[in-house]
Specification:
single chain; disordered C terminus; mainly beta; 14% helix; seven-stranded mixed β-barrel
Length: 175
Amino acid sequence: MYARPIALAVASALALNMPTLAPRFTLETTGAVQLIAGGDEARYGVIGNEGSSMLTVSLGATGTGSALQLRIEGAGLPAEGRYPIRSSWEKDATAPAFHAFFAAGPANSPLGWFHGESGTVTITRAANGQLAGSFEIEALGFLTADTTEAEHWVTVKGSFKAQRDSTATTIATAR
């Protein structure tokens, strides 16, 4: 008779005590572009189907500042730990790696576009619809002031606390 109310009370207490992370990110760049950006637009989702799924972490994608996208193959959350940044999708890689894409400046007047060549992403939390970590990325690309020269380097450092975005999963599943 009391089992159901007690179970509900325990479940409610556990839910209230679960640590929640409000989505946010910060990043700072040095090198060819120097800027500081941040905000609460930090989401992740899985795109693709069972044969070729990819987890995408999106930081600042529709905001008025810079944006960073981190991708790793797979349909699940990466385990806590440190992952390398790779510049190519190596099929024979023995360990999972992230790929990074950085758009410097606002979408309506960008400063440049860069892709990660090396560095690391450190995952510190991957549970309960939340993904948190930090990154340090060496990225290569071009500035909008000189699109003929694609040898500009930036270092992108920062951290994120992202929440799951079911929109990406819904779109991928609808295909």
